[in-house]
Amino acid sequence: MITTVLKHQPTKFAVYARLVARRHASAVAASSVAAPIAAATSATTTTSTFELCDPNPELVDARLAPSNFVPSLAVVYRDFCTEEEAQSLVSDVQVCLKRRRYEMGHWDSVIVNYKETELHDEESIISSDISKNLLDRVRYQLQERHLSHKDFTWLPCHVIDLHKDGELNAHVDSVRFSGDIVAGLSLLSPSIMRLVPDDDGDVKHGLVERKKHEAAVGVNWVDLYLPPRSLYVLADAGRYHYSHQLLPSGSVFCSNEEEGPITVQRDHRISVIFRDAKD
């Protein structure tokens, strides 16, 4: 049972446990109306929610990484969710996004041709149980594999809809409010994320400053291949001391020798971002 698994978690997850328990209780109540269907759904959900995934190192090209880079700083989980789960979550978030227009520029020029929203009231915004269980599963994966060493609370999920012709330029996510990780569930389109060392831990805003930064860093970088339905995690120094950006369509990811180079045609992309709150 879901409540049995969660009650052994430390007290920092008490609120999260109650949230999942309520969903499970609703599913049990529904079984009195449609027992066979509800029972099958509950069993599938319980198994998938608590099954931890291992990262796929072949999706990280660290051949030109700085000497102090370690694999735990940036990982990618391939096929973290199913097609059904991805379609469900896209449908749910597009209910909010469809009322917004694409913005041609952010105040700091980091992102161009995009929509965004935050899931402040996730319970009411995300209507599908499939989507809700997926978000729970992402949080469980992150708490167990990347945040088990600390007490923390979650910030609301941040959803970014990037147009086919949109740009996400080099930046370090604000360190004023968010904590040790930045993680993203990639939906609809493949892309390549490039990490570049940033010794100051905060790339200066503005196009001129960013271009100077990119010219100064030399050849040290790490590329992450983000196929649809993958989950990436930037942790610790990978979150604070590397800028990240999406490379333009047509960029090449150099995979292992067996697969060879992958030319990535980037299209309309939606990402759901997860962050822990700053201590």
From TrEMBL:
Signal peptide as annotated in the record: none
Gene3D superfamilies (UniProt xref): Alpha-ketoglutarate-dependent dioxygenase AlkB-like (2.60.120.590)
Sections of the chain in a coiled coil: none
InterPro entries: AlkB-like_sf (IPR037151), ALKBH7-like (IPR032870)
GO biological process per UniProt: DNA damage response; fatty acid metabolic process
Cellular component aspect of the GO annotation: mitochondrial matrix
PANTHER family in the record: ALPHA-KETOGLUTARATE-DEPENDENT DIOXYGENASE ALKB HOMOLOG 7, MITOCHONDRIAL, SPERMATOGENESIS ASSOCIATED 11-RELATED
Protein name as catalogued: AlkB, alkylation repair homolog
